[in-house]
Amino acid sequence: MEECTHLDQIKEVTPNSEGCAECIAKGDTWIHLRMCRTCGHVGCCDESDNRHARQHFRETNHPIINSLEPGEEWSWCFIDEVIVGLEPPPSEQAGGFLKLLKRVLRSG
Ligand SMILES: [Zn+2]
Ligand SMILES: [Zn+2]
Ligand SMILES: [Zn+2]
Predict the structure, then answer these.
(1) How many whole angstroms from 75 Cα to the centroid of ligand 2?
(2) pLDDT of amino acid 90
(3) Choosing a second label site near 80 at 20 to 30 A (CA), which of 32, 56, 63, 66?
């Protein structure tokens, strides 16, 4: 099974903005929001026209995003193209990550 090897890039971040900053600047809209787990950048999802979350990954190489949608508790690694955090934690590090994710979601 594919596993993400980039969990060490996850930092304790909070969303930088309440929506996709690039879309807001353009007066555009988005469908779902994703947050970069390395720097807190908020971007729109791949179903949105602008795909700013993916663009942020291309520009910065920050691999892991998580959903900012209520009730969605998953993260995604652009490099491995796997869902991160839904599987049972393979290590203590991943367990800590799950707690971190829940804390971020609660604070949002
Ligand atoms: Zn990865
Ligand atoms: Zn956007
Ligand atoms: Zn980032």
Answers:
(1) 18
(2) 43
(3) 32
